[in-house]
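Incident log, entry 3
Record: Crossover junction endodeoxyribonuclease RuvC (183 residues)
Problem: checksum mismatch between cached and fresh output.
Input:
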Amino acid sequence: MRVLGVDPGLTRCGLGIVDQGAQRKLALVAVDVVRTSPDTDLAVRLFAVQCAVEQWLDDHQPDAVALERVFSQHNVRTVMGTAQVSGVVMAAAAKRGVPVVLHTPSEVKAAVTGNGRADKSQITHMVTRILMLESSPKPADAADALALAICHLWRGPAAARLAAAQKAAGPVRTQWKVPGGRS
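Fresh output:
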């Protein structure tokens, strides 16, 4: 299975392709960071990211895209740019029929390091070890994109099986009994 991991960002958007082969062995295929200047018009910046992502989708033909879920930050401007880039990535993947799965930052950190609160250096270190790289991917956006792909390869199939089982089981009905009251 081949996964494109995307660490969305308007100034730096990390892209990483990881293959999973026999015995769940992982291999780096490609990694890069798309950079856009804050001085450039927003539409032009989003188009630049779109073109790069589309090129990666066409060149590498991933089976899935693992995208970091946008979470609330203190800087609304930053979260808006991240959300806009995420939308561009999702649209490019959907156009090609490639499924997109969103992973939270803590989920990715836990999958790669065993600690949902790991810092950037821990993530980079573990990505380097897991993929048996001679040098660490830089900048951190590149390592984060690879971590997203690794997370999806390790957790994605299990999560899909769990979701299918839950759907097959139907809705869960619970009855709460309140002490001294009606149920």
